[in-house]
C-alpha cells in the first residue's frame, strides 16, 4: 500500500469526520479511501456510459423506430385490404380512400422529419 499526504480545508475535514462517525469508519483515512474508491467507480461508470452513447446515431434511431415502422406497415396493409374488400364495389371510392390515406401518411412523415410542405 502506498502512502500520500493530503491536505483538506477545515470544512471538508469536518465533513469527513462526520461521515466517519456516521458510517462507523475506523479513521478519516479509511473514509477518504472509501470516497476515492467510490469516485473512481462513478468515473468508470460515466466513461462506460459515454462510450455507449457514442454508438452510431442512425442505428439508435432505426432501433427506436422499428416497432413504429412495423405498426405503420401493418396498419397500411390492413387498410388496403379492408378498402379493397368494401361491400360497395366502387373502384373510384377505393382509389379515393387509398389516395387520401397515402397523402396523410406522407404529410405525417414529412412533419416528423421537419420537411416543408409541398
Word description of this protein:
With 118 residues, the protein is mainly alpha-helical. Helix content is 76%, strand content 0%. It has 4 helices and no strands. The protein has helices at 10-23, 28-53, 57-84, 91-112. The radius of gyration is 31 Å and the shape is rod-shaped. The N and C termini lie far apart (71 Å). The mean pLDDT is 81.
In summary, what is this structure?
The protein is an all-alpha fold and 118 residues long.
Shape: rod-shaped
Give me the secondary-structure category: mainly alpha
Give the averaged pLDDT, no decimals. Answer: 81
- What is the succession of H and E elements? HHHH
The helicity comes to: over 70%
Compute the separation of the termini in Å: 71 Å
Spans of 5+ residues with little confidence (pLDDT < 50)?
none
Sketch the major β-sheet: none
Beta content: under 5%
Topology, number of strands = 0
Question: Helix segment count?
Answer: 4
Spatial extent as radius of gyration = 31 Å
Q: Which key phrases capture this entry?
A:
4 helices, 118 residues, mainly alpha
Describe the SSE topology.
Elements: H1 10-23, H2 28-53, H3 57-84, H4 91-112
